Each structure stands twice: as C-alpha cells, then as structure tokens.
Give the backbone structure.
Amino acid sequence: MGVARYKRNEKDGIEEVILQSGINVKPRYGPEDLEEIEFEYAEDLGDPGEYPFTRGIHPQGYRSRAWTTRQYSGFGTPEETNERFKLLISHGQTGLNVAFDLPTQMGSWIYPVEDAVRLIGDTIEYSIITLPRCNPVSVCGYHIRESGASPSQEIAFALEIANSYIDEAISRGLSIDDVARRITFNFNIFGNLWEQVAKFRAARKLWAENLKEKYGAENPKSMHLRGLFGGGGFGLTKAQPENNIIRSAYYALGAALAGAQTTALCSFDEAFTIPTPRAALLSLRTCELLMDEIGLRDTVDPLAGSYFIETLTIQMEEKIQQERKKIQDVGGMINAVSSGFVQKLVAQQAYRWEKGLKAGEYIKIGVNKYVDDQDEPEVDLHEYDSSTQEKQIQNLKQVKAERNDSEDTSTLTELERVSRDSENVMPVLVECCKAYATVGEMADVFRNVFGEFKEPSIF
C-alpha cells in the first residue's frame, strides 16, 4: 500500500523505512525484539474473544460470523438512494451505510463544543432508556484521518472523543457498562498494510484497558471495540484510477487481517464522482472474494505471533498513548477542540504529509512514482441533475403547506424551553418530527439557545 517514508541510509546502502506514525521499521525481526519490549502473551495479546481483545472480540473470529459488507451510499433523491441500496443488497451486501445530506451529517459542527456534547449525552441517555437495542453514537476517527492525521492520531483522538461522551453520560448517573456497549467506531484504512493492522490491534487493546482501568467497566462485552473499518477515500487517486481497484483490495485485506466487524470499501471512481453501480459492485465483490475464495475467514488473527506484527502493535500502542497525552495535557478533547489545539495538530500532520508526498518520501503510484503522461482518464461521472434540487424544494413547500402550523410552532417552542432548561431534548425532537418541523427549523432553535461554534485561528 506504499504509504511509508523511505530514506536511503548512505552508510550501508539500506533503505530506512519510517511509517507515517513515526515508527522505524527494521529490515528483520526476531525473538529478541519481543524480549526487548517485554512482550507477555496474556497481558499484550490474550486469546481471541478475551481481554484485552487484541486478537479480536469473537473467540472464533470469522469462522463464526463473516464481517458485514457495506457501501457508503446516498445521493440525489431518497428514491435514487433506495434503488442503489436494493441493487447492492440483491448482489449480497449485508449492511447499509447511509450517506446523509451534508447539512444533516455535519450538524454536530454548528454549536459550541460543550453544547454539542450535551446533545450527544441526551442522545445516549434517551437511547439507553427508550431504545435499548440502538447504538446512538459512532465515534468517527475516519474523518480525522481523511483530514490528514496520522494513523496513531486517528485512534488517539477517537478514543479521547469517546471518553468525552462517556464522561458526559456518567455525569447523568448512567453506568459505564450501559454506556460503553452503545458506542461504536468508524475508522479508516489506507496506507502501509502493516501499520493499519497494528493500529487496529492496538486500538482494541487500548479501548478495553481504558474502559476497565479508567472507568471500572465489568462486563467484558462492554469493553469490545466495535466498529466499521472503511477503505479510505483519501488513499485513492485521480491519476491512473484503475489502480484504485488494487488499492481497495489491499484496504479490504488490511481490514480483514485486523479483525474488522464491518468493512465499507471505497470504490475505484470515488476520487472523481459518486460511485457508479459497476464500481460499487466491484468493491462488494472484493470483500466477498476475500471471504469465500482467498481464505480470510479460515482462522482468527492469522498474523498473531509474528515477531514483526507483535512488535509493531506494541510500538503503535505507545505512539497512540503519546498522542492521547497531548490531548489530556490540555484538559481533554472538549478543550482541545474549542481552543483549536487538535485542529492544529491535524493541520501540521497534513502539511507534513503533503510535503513528504511532493518530495517523494511518501510513495503514491501514478502521483509521484511511475507517473505517465496520459490524458485525463475516462471515468463515468455521476452527472448532477438540477431537477433533483427543484423537486426537493417543491416537496418541502408541500410539507409546510399541508402540516399543522400550530403543532409545528408548539413543538418548536417546547424544544426551545427544554434546551434552555437543560432537559433531555430527544423526546421533544421526536414530537417535532411528528409535527413535520424541518431539520433547519430545529437547528435554528438550538442556534438561538446555544449560539454557533466559531472556528479558532490555529496559526
């Protein structure tokens, strides 16, 4: 997958390999490496399905259940999205990964951070009481990685975000075992294969230790790191787009070797456009090939015991902890986001990445190595249909014309009251939706109460 920094050691002619997380990879590994890091099987690894879950959360791994296959999809009208879902399901997809419209998707970024976390706490509390089978929160390290963060930063920042949500929920009197079991994660896969595998193995261990040692969780199931490991769109290139088919296959391989419960694999044309049906099906078939033909379901954690992988997992754990400490030293993630501290860390890492890419220290085939002079590649584009916008506007006008305005006004007024009185807003939001209040109207109520988040200057 070729996203490592390669430097020539002039003394002996051997290339020096430094992963994006800052780990130096040696030419060879042996028993002495595990002795040096004082590796202990029970403490650092454990059996599959047992604490600290480095080897996975299920004792039988994929022998007992295959990973869920998904494609991130949502575009145009609800009808068009529904048609794509049905196409993918008819070809064997086992889960849905819904892409919302951007205003809905990005609404945890409108309000001041403290108020946004309060709303998340409302969601968690409401779900535990009213929707006991619901997972209300998916902590997204994926977008942090896509913004330029290193693999170790991705995991570190996601864990600290999750702790902020846990702290909010516990302050309401909820138990850690109830809260933790309802938190899932969305992580990214692109870059050096070994770094990705080590990243997820270390993440499972650190999450379990975090819940047990910091919060006193007792139920082993509440210590499971559950989530989606998705093939990262940031790793794809517009140059030589067919190479993305191969890249995506290795992303899926990395997810499987790392013990993903769910994989949403990006499609080869996503650097250009919304995936075509053909490209989406290719990604689905990639996962199915790994499951049913290549042998990734044969045994649990097949890389376990490798001198290299076990050493790298411990080193990745250390790097993640170093990044977590940076956040903890400024008072936690809420303060780190409010002050712009974490945004600055990500921006600095993104700059180092781009600088390394231009210098050829990070290799991207077709971009800075094996570049050709071919014309713009031919890729089927998803053309924008202006009638879609007009149709949606007309639908909204019709809803507003047909709804009961007094019910709409009444529920929005109640929403403002409970927001100001620090009551749980979720029951009232449900009533607002039943009265056909729009997302924009509900969001404006929160704007009036909380104000808006102002992005701090980070330089």
About this structure: The mean pLDDT is 93. The CA atoms of residues 145 and 182 lie 23 Å apart. The first helix runs from residue 31 to 36.
